[in-house]
Amino acid sequence: MKVDRLVSIIMILLDKKRIGAQELADMFEVSLRTIYRDIDAINMAGIPVRGAPGVGGGFEIMEGYKIDKKVFSAADLSALLMGLASLSNMVRGDELVHALAKVKSFIPADRAKEIELKVNQICIDLSPWMGKSDIQPYLEKIKAAMQESKLLSFDYIAHHGNKTVRSVEPYQLVLKSSHWYLQGYCHARNDFRLFRLSRMSNLQMQDEIFTPRDYEKPFIGFAEILETMQTEIKIRIHKSVMDRVLDFCTYEHFSPDGDAYYIVSFPFIENEYYYNILMSFGDKCECLEPLHIREEMKRRVHDIAALYEN
């Protein structure tokens, strides 16, 4: 049960006179059963929410009720503040500022120092060490286009460096493995596509308004699909690149090979991305098996050497 969803439901109930269960379920993309469980949890926390049956019915907080600031624990408030603060560093907006202010209003004066200490124990910084300086304005422009249901147009560098012009209905911003993506319906492909923001340029919000379509989250089941595609290869690495290899697998995959080397069972998919990972380790990595991947690595090394010989 997500604390941030419970707090959001409480805020909505405080702000609105009444709201239906289905509207809440659609808003948070969960089932009706989950919403009913959330309402039960809110009631158990001491906030009296009642259901009004019939047409125009729904959930509402009993009239005249004033929320007790002690309903949230220090851990609850700390978690909410950490999440909102980390998100507001990347995606700015009045609603996030207001949400932060509302959550802070729940902090009793006698617990302020305790909660501040807990919040400062964990720092979540989603901004990259290096990268495009225009990612932030792109995030804000995409967010505005989603809120207003307006088309986006941009130039996009696809696979193998192909540059295309896209017109896209924006639906969702996705942060995955430190990279931002836009999920949208591409008019050029007549289908949903995932676009990496770092490959975009000349992003513009159009005046044309679109009617939203039904869509699924882009990474549902992705981990399972990726797992079926992966195989393990055997590589020999120098200890100087060990920290980088650990970004892709755990220490349990390492076996010492003398004082300065390790044999590693490395997760691998036969595509450009994974071959480029191996190439990035330079002469500190040797692919031992399977043989056909070792031969492909040899071919790529020869191609690079030939480039410099010419």
UniProtKB/TrEMBL annotation:
Keywords: Transcription, Transcription regulation. The keyword Acetylation does not apply. InterPro entries: CBASS_pafABC_assoc_protein, DeoR_HTH, HTH_11, PafC-like, WCX_dom, WH-like_DNA-bd_sf, WH_DNA-bd_sf, WYL_dom. The keyword Transcription applies. SUPFAM superfamilies: Winged helix' DNA-binding domain. Residues 2-57 form the HTH deoR-type domain. PANTHER family: PROTEIN PAFC (PTHR34580:SF1), PTHR34580. This is YafY family protein.
